[in-house]
């Protein structure tokens, strides 16, 4: 079975869980005799190709004399509006940036519909421009590649998947890792919503990373329940050296938040819970690792609460730095307001760190050995953190059984279910 797969990022060049999930999934699929060509907007040359063949969309030339490629432009017109969209920023920052960087439809069209286009592969001001061009390139790549099924990850690549399907007639599977409602709450970007909805409507199957996400897809996007399948994410087995020798370098307990500092991830609830814990015991340190549009607001709130001497902001971490952070942590907290799945708690548990997660996360569906609280329940969150910091039998129990539980959540198991999805569209 041969798969043409579209993604926006691939390790080591990632900004979050999407690239990590794509990597684990492709490695799992290879174990089930699935061959994958993985297309990214921009390849750097150092991506792991142990499970896939990486295609750099920036290297693909569009033949402006080919009638089918010229004609394709009519099918990406709907992506022109909102070409300044940037994921994960608040409305005030969005308004400021878009006011500074206004773009015309004519400029957008001419840049996208050129013979060669250099993608940034990032999440910036040209994002919609890149999504449109990526769809055009997806159509071109599909005509030159031998495959059975198209698989597109998240809204950024849905248009490329739809283009490939329209060009070849091959079945399309789209993977919903996070909806626009997860990212923005009720203040959604209607252009992104439209792309998500159109991609799922055109797809033969929709894979949701949790039952919570499946419910959103069906109820908020009006997608046929019969074609929406839940396949939970997993975690890569740890093949890295033991980090316990690093040591914490501080005598206090260390409680960590690691993720994008955005509305979706609930960082403000972590800060408020930290204050309540410190009111009961000052011998605890809190770390907020990540970056995002709410970072400055969180720094200001920590200063207002006068807990800055017990609070640390590290910036964005990846690779070995994440492992080092877990090695120094006594508790990991994921207070997400809406988390379609959430791989980071699995990574923490794999590193022998007990976790507190919100009930509003997909990963709560599969984890037994994690303390679960409502994201808005600051008192409950503070109690859970305090308990894991101060009652050794409790933390030891969650560490022991949590590690065993996570070790059983393998990508090859998730990949097995995804292969079954592939087989269902070929019947």
Give the gist of this structure.
This protein has 427 residues and is α/β, with parallel strands linked by helices.
Cα(first) to Cα(last) distance is 13 Å
Number of helices: 16
Q: In the CATH hierarchy, what is the superfamily of the largest domain?
A: Glycogen Phosphorylase B
CATH topology of the largest domain: Rossmann fold
Residue windows where pLDDT falls under 50 for at least 5 positions: 72-91, 101-113
Spatially, the strands of the biggest sheet line up as 3-2-1-4-5-6-7
What is the approximate shape? globular
CATH class of the largest domain: Alpha Beta
How would you characterize this protein structure?
- The protein is α/β, with parallel strands linked by helices and 427 residues long.
- The chain folds into two domains: 2-234 and 411-426, Glycogen Phosphorylase B (Rossmann fold); 244-407, Rossmann fold, CATH 3.40.50.
- It has helices at residues 17-30, 67-71, 91-100, 105-112, 127-144, 154-168, 180-184, 190-202, 211-221, 267-280, 295-304, 320-327, 344-350, 378-390, 392-407, 411-426, and strands spanning 2-6, 35-40, 53-56, 149-153, 172-176, 205-208, 228-230, 253-258, 284-289, 311-315, 331-334, 355-358, 371-373.
- The strands form two sheets. It has a seven-stranded parallel beta sheet, sandwiched between helices. A six-stranded parallel beta sheet has the order 10-9-8-11-12-13, sandwiched between helices.
- Mean pLDDT is 83; it is low at 72-91 and 101-113.
């Amino acid at each position: 079975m041969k798969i043409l797969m579209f993604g926006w990022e691939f390790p080591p060049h990632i900004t979050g869980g999407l690239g990590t999930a794509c990597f684990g999934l492709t490695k799992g699929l290879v174990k089930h005799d699935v061959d994958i060509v993985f297309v990214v907007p921009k390849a750097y040359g150092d991506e792991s190709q142990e499970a896939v063949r990486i295609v750099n969309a920036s290297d693909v030339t569009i033949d402006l004399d080919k009638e089918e490629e010229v004609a394709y432009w009519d099918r990406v017109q709907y992506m022109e509006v909102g070409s300044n969209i940037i994921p994960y920023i608040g409305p005030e920052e969005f308004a400021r940036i878009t006011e500074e960087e206004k773009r015309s439809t004519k400029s957008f069209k001419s840049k996208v519909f050129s013979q060669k286009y250099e993608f940034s592969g990032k999440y910036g001001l040209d994002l919609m421009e890149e999504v449109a061009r990526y769809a055009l390139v997806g159509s071109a790549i599909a005509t030159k590649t031998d495959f059975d099924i198209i698989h597109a990850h998240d809204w950024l690549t849905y248009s490329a998947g739809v283009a490939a399907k329209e060009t070849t007639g091959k079945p399309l599977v789209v993977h919903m890792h996070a909806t626009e409602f997860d990212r923005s709450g009720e203040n959604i970007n209607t252009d992104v919503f439209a792309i998500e909805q159109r991609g799922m409507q055109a797809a033969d199957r929709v894979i949701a990373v949790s039952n919570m996400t499946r419910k959103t897809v069906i109820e908020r996007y009006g997608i046929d329940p019969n074609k929406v399948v839940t396949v939970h994410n997993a975690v890569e087995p740890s093949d890295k050296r033991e980090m316990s020798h690093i040591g914490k370098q501080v005598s206090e307990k260390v409680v960590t938040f690691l993720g994008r500092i955005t509305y979706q991830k609930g960082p403000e609830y972590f800060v408020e819970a930290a204050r309540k814990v410190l009111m009961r015991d000052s011998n605890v340190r809190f770390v907020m690792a990540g970056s995002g549009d709410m970072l400055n607001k969180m720094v200001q709130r920590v200063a207002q609460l006068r807990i800055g001497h017990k609070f640390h902001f590290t910036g964005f971490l990846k690779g070995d730095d994440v492992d080092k952070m877990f090695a120094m942590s006594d508790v990991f907290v994921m207070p997400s307001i809406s988390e379609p799945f959430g791989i980071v708690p699995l990574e923490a548990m794999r590193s022998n760190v007990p976790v507190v997660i919100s009930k509003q996360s997909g990963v709560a569906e599969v984890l037994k050995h994690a303390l679960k609280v409502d994201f808005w329940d600051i008192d409950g969150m503070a109690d859970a953190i305090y308990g894991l910091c101060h009652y050794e039998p409790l933390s030891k129990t969650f560490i022991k059984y949590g590690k065993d539980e996570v070790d059983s959540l393998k990508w090859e198991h998730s990949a097995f279910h995804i292969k079954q999805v592939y087989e269902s569209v070929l019947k």
